[in-house]
Design brief:
- This is Diguanylate cyclase.
- It comes from Agarivorans albus MKT 106.
- The protein is α/β, with parallel strands linked by helices and about 250 residues long.
- It has eleven helices and nine strands.
- The chain is globular and about 45 Å long.
- The structure holds guanosine-5'-monophosphate (2 copies), manganese (II) ion and sodium ion.
- Sodium ion binds next to β6.
């Protein structure tokens, strides 16, 4: 309850910030995008997102926080995009997606930042499938009509991964890191199967949680398009991102 009270004022008190983890092209290792990950500092203590995001969802605070994240992420990405074609990937909760105003909020963030829509990727987790699928399909379509790309995050961990593939026309599938972790055993066959489906359905594929060179090599041999994980970089504060981008080209 205390966390909830603190969280309700986190935006006003300037306690939230984003860190950014690069996603690279598997073919040439160039950075193609960054995933924005939310951080909350409360009285010198970092509260992990796994704790506070669910509280925000529970107490109806996620819309306001999510809007702040979108605005902040688009603003930042807009400054990168002036120099390099680098996209920003923003995580959203089901409650945000189900909001009638969500597409307008996205549109407003794009407008005020002047970020080109194709540089914004919206990541939703598979848990969205517990909600109204028709509404979600409409929201996804509306985002895509604006030029925004949509990803399914943590792919393969939900109870309805195949239904998602069938019912939601997303742009990008992010293979959950649990499969990458087990790539030397069962993960290999599962990722191979996901690659076949993704190719047939015209989805790009990102593999998450790469921690070793060997995992990277195997994923490249399987034709995965993009890679993300501690092997390349942890989520970074903004100043380190600027350095990384400047060093790239
Ligand atoms: O770095 P990591 O501990 O940040 O992220 C933990 C979890 O929190 C991940 O599942 C991630 O998707 C989620 N998360 C991080 N940032 C955001 C955000 O801005 N919005 C939402 N809804 N989830 C986020
Ligand atoms: O659920 P989502 O994929 O949005 O969450 C991203 C989470 O994964 C963040 O907490 C991020 O810090 C974490 N993460 C990113 N790369 C790696 C990695 O290589 N290994 C592990 N264990 N976690 C990672
Ligand atoms: Mn994510
Ligand atoms: Na994930």
């Amino acid at each position: 309850l205390l966390l909830k009270d603190g969280l309700s004022q986190a935006v006003e008190k300037d306690q939230l910030h984003l860190v950014y983890q690069p996603i690279i092209d598997a073919n040439d290792c160039q950075i193609v995008s960054f995933e924005a990950l939310l951080r909350w500092r409360l009285n010198d203590e970092m509260i992990p997102p796994d704790e506070f995001i669910s509280i925000a969802e529970q107490y109806g605070l996620i819309r306001k926080i999510g809007q702040w994240v979108l605005e902040q992420a688009c603003q930042t990405a807009s400054t990168w995009a002036q120099r390099h074609p680098i996209a920003i990937c923003v995580n959203v909760s089901v409650a945000q997606l189900e909001d009638d105003d969500f597409v307008d909020i996205v549109e407003a963030a794009l407008q005020s930042s002047q970020l080109a829509p194709e540089f914004l990727h919206i990541e939703m987790t598979e848990s969205v499938f517990t909600s109204d699928i028709g509404l979600l399909a409409e929201q996804i379509k509306a985002l895509q009509d604006k030029g925004v790309k949509v990803s399914i995050d943590d792919f393969g961990t939900g109870y309805s991964s195949l239904s998602i593939m069938q019912d939601l026309a997303v742009n990008i599938v992010k293979i959950d890191r649990s499969f990458v972790e087990r790539i030397d055993t069962n993960g290999y066959a599962i990722i191979t199967a996901v690659m076949h489906m993704a190719r047939a359905l015209n989805y790009s594929v990102v593999a998450e949680g790469i921690e070793t060179q060997s995992q990277m090599n195997t994923l490249r041999s399987l034709g995965v398009d993009y890679l993300q994980g501690y092997y390349f970089a942890k989520p970074l504060p903004i100043d380190q991102v600027e350095q990384l981008i400047s060093a790239e080209q």
